[in-house]
Amino acid sequence: MEQRISFITLGVADLARSRAFYHALGWRESPAGQAAIAFFRAGSLVFALFEREALAEDASVSPVGSGFSAFTLAHNVPSEAAVLATLDEAVAAGGRLVRPADKVFWGGFRGYFADPDSFLWEVCFNPFISLDPDACVKLP
């Protein structure tokens, strides 16, 4: 298997509500999506929204379950000020602030918000990792 992720798909409770949230954050949806799924270009991968029940059915698993999903999505930004601005933008769009931005023991600055389905997003400035001109993370 190649070391690559092509899509990240979130199973959401209300596709229209989730679409509206990400649109409010300024994300542009691809016309390749359909009524039942939304696609957003996110750097080198595709971020997708799909009804939770339909996604579970597609994978042949139970849709039952809630709480911490054991993963977070991360959005790296070029400065501490950008962390604060992005968290404010997410809350204004209908997200919920989970952890206000603060310094991290390793030297970074981060905070967390939850989208309408409580998927956790970390907004982070890492002074040890740079972003390329397309705002993609450049690993050393």
- Biggest sheet strand order reads 4-7-6-5
pLDDT average, as an integer?
90
If classified by CATH, what would the architecture of the largest domain be?
A: Roll
Proportion of residues in helical segments: 10-25%
Please summarize the sheet with the most strands.
Answer: 4 strands, mixed
Total beta strand runs? 9
Structural class estimated from helices and strands: alpha/beta
Task: Domain count, please report it.
Answer: 2
Order of helices and strands: EHEEHEHEEEEE
Structure commentary:
The chain is an alpha/beta fold and 140 residues long. The protein has 2 domains: 1-65, Roll (2,3-Dihydroxybiphenyl 1,2-Dioxygenase, domain 1), CATH 3.10.180; 67-140, 2,3-Dihydroxybiphenyl 1,2-Dioxygenase, domain 1. It is 22% helix and 34% strand. It contains 3 helices and 9 strands. It has helices spanning 15-24, 52-59, 80-92, and strands spanning 7-12, 37-42, 45-51, 73-76, 96-103, 109-114, 120-125, 130-131, 137-138. The strands form 3 sheets. The protein has a 4-stranded mixed sheet with strand order 4-7-6-5, covered by helices on one side. A hairpin with a 5-residue loop joins strand 8 and strand 9. The radius of gyration is 16 Å and the shape is globular.
Keywords:
single chain; 140 residues; alpha/beta; 2,3-Dihydroxybiphenyl 1,2-Dioxygenase, domain 1; 2 domains; four-stranded mixed sheet; three-stranded mixed sheet
What is the topological layout?
Blueprint: E1 7-12, H1 15-24, E2 37-42, E3 45-51, H2 52-59, E4 73-76, H3 80-92, E5 96-103, E6 109-114, E7 120-125, E8 130-131, E9 137-138
Parallel strand pairs: 1-3, 4-7
Antiparallel strand pairs: 2-3, 5-6, 6-7, 8-9
